[in-house]
Write a structure and sequence with these properties.
Structural class: alpha/beta
Largest sheet: 7 strands, mixed
Distance between the termini: 21 Å
CATH topology of the largest domain: Rossmann fold
Radius of gyration: 21 Å
Order of helices and strands: EHEEHEEHEHEHEHEHEEHEE
CATH superfamily of the largest domain: Formyl transferase, N-terminal domain
Strand content: 25-35%
Length: 287
């Protein structure tokens, strides 16, 4: 397999107008860059333009640490929100988990196989149950139990751990606690959650029982960014599997767990490869 060379991902979001693609490509060309991949989308109803462009660092005449500031004049002309990401940077990802271990185990195995270009400096839980996985993969495991009386204190301890480990992304791998608005305001990085249903259907407690009692033919899983509005954050990835009248609740749970693993892993990969742009309550995912 050919060695992947260093590259830059440029993410752009602004109101749609003529000349954006040409100007972005021109900026890269003017400084000796070679575009490796580029995609864009226009939301015609909202009038929003979103773009992801990846170009090689080799031969680019602007030092990597100055690329973001060098692009600023272009961004001002089009009133862009923009981000510059270097492929050499490995995001530092913390994982939140409770007692169910399937999503945690899947992410750890994908990480070990090299499918996810991330570092995982810490796993955080409110239970000891999943400590064996942290031991197996030699990752520090912090346990902060949750009680109704001390939930705010517990969140402060989690936040302190995230800050100490310089976390860039927080993943809720079936973490069965609701993160408070204060926590989300203070966390300082995106938070991805996996929801055990195809949102917005069957939200709330025991979605598989609800699905079973309704005799559904499809069940799903949803990965989304966590926001103050419970289970209403921008959706990154979803998938479904067919079920039939012979399936029991236990069958639905088993099939649902498989989906949760796949959907969460896809969402994390898309995020760390900088393929997701949020606008309003929606996302564009450049796959």
């Amino acid at each position: 397999m050919a060695e992947k060379k260093d590259s830059v991902v440029l993410l752009v979001a602004c109101k749609d107008r003529k000349g954006i693609v040409a100007r972005v490509a021109g900026f890269i060309h003017d400084f000796g860059g070679n575009i490796l991949d580029s995609d864009h989308h226009t939301d015609r109803e909202a009038g929003d333009f979103l773009m992801r462009t990846e170009f090689a660092l080799e031969g680019f005449q602007i030092p990597r640490e100055e690329i973001a500031s060098a692009f600023a004049p272009v961004a001002r002309v089009f009133e862009m929100r923009y981000e510059v990401h270097l492929s050499e940077h490995r995001p530092r990802v913390a994982i939140l988990v409770s007692k169910q271990d399937h999503c945690l185990a899947d992410l750890l195995q994908r990480h070990r196989r090299g499918e996810l270009a991330i570092d995982i400096p810490v796993i955080i839980s409110n239970h000891e149950t999943c400590a064996m996985w942290a031991d197996l993969f030699k990752i520090p495991y912090e346990v902060f139990p949750v009680t109704q009386e001390a939930k705010r204190e517990q969140e402060h301890r989690v936040l302190a751990t995230l800050k100490r480990n310089q976390i860039n992304l927080l993943v809720m791998a079936r973490y069965m606690q609701i993160l408070s608005a204060d926590f989300l305001a203070a966390v300082g990085c995106p938070v991805i959650n996996i929801h055990h249903s195809f949102l917005p259907a069957f939200i709330g407690a025991n979605p598989y029982r609800q699905a079973y009692e309704r005799g559904v033919k499809l069940i799903g899983a949803t990965a989304h960014y966590a926001t103050e509005e419970l289970d209403e954050g921008p959706i990154i990835e979803q998938d479904v599997v067919r079920v039939g009248h012979r399936d029991t609740v236990e069958d639905l749970i088993r099939k649902g767990r498989d989906l949760e693993e796949i959907v969460l892993a896809r969402a994390v990969r898309m995020h760390v490869e900088h393929r997701v742009l949020v606008y309003g309550k929606k996302t564009v995912v450049f796959d």
